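Reference record
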Amino acid sequence: MGSKEREIKSPEVQLGGNSDPKRGSKKLGIYFLESDDRRTAFGRGYSGGVGGATPVNIHGKPIPDINKTGGWIAALFIFGNEMAERMAYFGLSVNMVAFMFYVMHRPFSSSANAVNNFLGISQASSVLGGFIADAYLGRYWTIAIFTTIYLAGLTGITLLATIKVFVPNQDQCDQIALLLGNCEPAKSWQMMYLYTVLYVTGFGAAGIRPCVSSFGADQFDERSRNYTSHLDRFFNFFYLSVTVGAIVAFTAVVYIQMKHGWGAAFGSLAIAMGLSNMLFFAGTPLYRHRLPGGSPLTRVAQVLVAAFRKRNVSFQSSEFVGLYELPGKRSAIKGSNKIAHTDDFRCLDKAALQLKEDDGTNPWRLCTVTQVEEVKILLKLIPIPACTIMLSVILTEYLTLSVQQAYTLNTHMGHLKLPVTCMPVFPGLSIFLLLSLYYSVFVPISRWFTGNPHGASQLQRVGIGLAVSILSVAWAGVFERYRRSYAMQHGYEASFLTPMSDLSAYWLLIQYCLIGIAEVFCIVGLLEFLYEEAPDAMRSIGSAYAAVAGGLGCFAATILNSIVKSVTRGKGERRESWLSQNINTGRFDYFYWLLTIMSLINFAAFLYAAHYYQYRSKDRIQTSDRQSEKGPGSDHTSINAPDPIRTPQLSVFGQE
């Protein structure tokens, strides 16, 4: 090739797809060839002498004294931003359905679907925020820009609820007129303005969500002896801040709305978001940053194109030189360490297969092993967050169905009457309690069973969460059957907005608390799993997987509702579907049991995926002179077998 080359010996790779020597296949060692002439995947090198995953300051320069940055103090500023963002998110999700029904005079079902679509789009589009952060701006600047957009959207919603010209006439619009659909409908331009500011808010949330957890985790030093413990605690406290924001949204914001109106309620969300922005920017001198690694989509495309172009080339071809990698410890990708070769998705290895005619300067023909392994990791991660979509479906259904149940029940607690819209606070309270007792109760008990120093592995926690969610939705079906029978027997068949004084709404606490426990185990475990397993330069996209799963769950809930309404709507005089607006004549119990069956199938799929998942060990690259193999004057860089972070074990929840 005319350039100085070095070779890296990888773990031995089975060629020919057969390990039986009697059938003529052979086990060979693959060599990674390194070239000093190789350019980066985007035609540029590193700035400031910073390579790999080394933390830098806001200017992209090495941090002189890393001990004066990052850590728990920096994380506290990030917790504050996430708390306000979640407060606004849940404040909108719980209040917007009622606002569209009572103020904009939209039917309840269409209001619920509109809010579900808003929640789904804001989560599913999180991959865009992750892409921008990993490719160009970095996590800090992505959060800074999108949190400002978020604030602009909340301000627009506040103006909508405050200025009368943006809403239809409220005169002569009482509860009876609402139910009969006799109130003045919102004008098309009024709905257009509402949807515009709502989706601007969702766009802001989409940019923040995949970056905040990853940016917070970036504040801890990977080289620290206690790094894994710090990371585990960080994600628990991170979700605790999410929970606190939700609790405030379900209580204080609802109280403000009841006492001072919709404008004050939405205005409080905007004020909280503005204060959190100030807090986030105040912590700027303390933050550790990671260099954006360039467009991950470009790198993925390069691997796919290069592998396709060499699809007919055999690993046993005489033209085969080796698998390609860069020299030394630095990767071709900013913000990333090298990744050792694995045997998964062998067809993609052809993207790094170097032939004699390859000069190593065209990344669309020849990719590095690290670049290929990034794509493999992204593919291997997909089944796990995909299995959490069902949990998101249940959470989305609870936001509307459980509130409809609560309207028919007695919400008095002694002399205090709890507003129906406050009912979703109870999952938050159960999450808060569980996280408070997690390290003092759950970890010691589970450690005794699993032998894991953290109580349970990440996939085990996700599995526990999915299992508990099945119990929650099954109980919801049992209680709904009892509630409906009670309503029919006591003459409430047509009075679906009249509370039954002898049946307490606090029976709903069982399903609420169970789903809260499921959420904390599943989502916290998933966030930590995606952060640790994702490639170094794609951690925001890895975190976006969780948000995308949540968004797809919202869309799936809307589609499922439409299918169930269409299929179960009766013929002739009886045209009530399972999800009738009159909950007493509908069959919500059947719908909950349908969700239970779907959850059981999903849990079986998760067990299968988790059993065959192998945790990614962190690679340790070493450079050494191996005079004995090439003689004096030659130097080699070897990728040694990695030291696993965790104790090796094989369980139903993956190989470690």
